[in-house]
Write a structure and sequence with these properties.
Elements lengths: L4 H11 L3 H6 L8 E4 L6 H7 L4 E3 L6 E4 L9 H4 L3 E3 L5 H7 L6 E4 L6 H9 L5 E5 L3 H14 L4 E4 L3 H7 L4 E7 L12 H6 L2 H21 E11 L8 H10 L3 E4 L8 E2 L16 E3 L9 E8 L17 H14 L7 E5 L2 E5 L8
Length: 359
């Protein structure tokens, strides 16, 4: 494939002796993966009887590689939410955050929902998962994937990070910022991403990422965990963005991410201050593991935060509508939904228990 000349020159300078090995990757087919839904089946047991040839992703216990000539996305199992088609290196992001059942979690840049569904499965449908997407056209796909995966603790919203930060100061135990980026790790999968790339676009993305992180920091409670990720290689959007974050918010501490399955440390030498703790971040290189590439950093907030003083959602649905739903539930469904019934236009919605007022 044809790569942007400025990108080639940049990566040659950064990678030096590794560059030839890195660029050789683009002569091969992209890596394919799927992630099994543990809410619906046992991943290991299902993989042994799956109608596809699968091999495990070493850094994700529910992730598997499949062969290029197979099409699991067209199988009824996919429509049933038994698995999610996901680029393998992207699976490492939610593994770094690892939310526990019962926690309050925010996926700030959530569409199309790959990482949201992974987080929700880890939470075992307990607690609260807010999946936000700023672009209205992408929210539909996010909501469909959440529904297909069977997530009942998840609320999909369409807001700016700034608006959410005003409503949820110091509220979340864990936040994922899978930031919009220049997409250098997508070039093999999507050649249009390569045609859109430029050094100016990298700088534009880095500036936007920092604005998003400001909002994320405001919503994180004391002791809370923030995971930041991109699917790009540029230090401006990765190590240098984390360097800026640590300098701006001195109470943040960079936590180590396990370097398994070919995952490598961050590169302090690509920053202005050469911060040694940037080795705690993770680089997933396409010439070092089976995946298209990712960057992941994990941070903890140390500064005390004021208790959240917002309002909790209250039932706003007509009692007659709730009775009709309960009747339908008994006749047609296998599970009984608990939560707060609210009306959105002509729709009846069940919010998770202890869900904030989102009106």
């Amino acid at each position: 494939m044809r790569l942007p000349e400025a990108f080639v020159a940049k990566m040659k300078k950064l990678l030096d002796e590794e560059a030839d090995e890195f660029f050789a990757v683009y002569e091969n087919e992209k890596i394919n993966g799927l992630r099994v839904n543990p809410l619906k089946t046992d991943p290991g047991a299902w993989a042994k009887t799956a109608p596809f040839s699968l091999s495990p992703v070493p850094f994700c216990p529910t992730g598997f590689y499949y062969e290029p000539d197979e099409q699991p996305g067209k199988h009824p199992y996919h429509a049933a939410g038994l698995y999610y088609i996901q680029e393998p290196s992207a699976m490492a992001v939610a593994e770094a955050l690892r939310p526990a059942p019962g926690e309050r979690v925010l996926d700030l840049c959530a569409a199309p929902g790959g990482k949201t569904t992974q987080l929700g499965a880890m939470m075992e449908n307990k607690g609260l998962l807010v999946a936000n997407e700023i672009h209205p056209k992408r929210v539909k796909a996010l909501a469909e994937n959440v529904e297909r995966f069977g997530l009942t603790n998840t609320v999909v919203v369409n807001e700016t990070p700034e608006a959410l930060a005003e409503q949820f100061p110091g509220f979340f135990d864990k936040i994922l910022v899978d930031a919009p980026c220049s997409g250098e790790g997508m070039f093999r999968k999507d050649e249009e991403a390569a045609s859109f790339w430029s050094p100016a676009y990298v700088e534009e993305c880095a500036a936007r990422q920092r604005r998003i992180l400001e909002s994320a920091y405001a919503m994180l409670k004391e002791g809370g965990i923030l995971v930041y990720s991109t699917c790009t290689f540029s230090p401006e959007e990765n190590e240098q963005t984390i360097e800026w974050l640590l300098e701006t918010y001195e109470d943040l501490q960079l936590l180590p991410i396990a370097k398994i399955g070919g995952i490598e440390p961050g590169r302090p030498e690509w920053t202005k201050t050469n911060r040694s703790d940037l080795v705690h971040a993770a680089r997933l290189w396409p010439h070092r593991l089976k995946g298209e590439g990712h960057f992941v950093a994990k941070l903890q907030k140390q500064r005390p935060t004021s208790p959240w003083r917002g309002r909790w959602a209250k039932s706003s649905a007509p009692k007659a509508a709730i009775r009709l739903y309960r009747q339908f539930e008994q006749e047609a469904l296998r599970t009984e939904r608990d939560g707060t019934f609210v009306s959105f236009g002509a729709h009846l919605t069940v919010l998770p228990e202890r869900c904030p007022d989102l009106s």
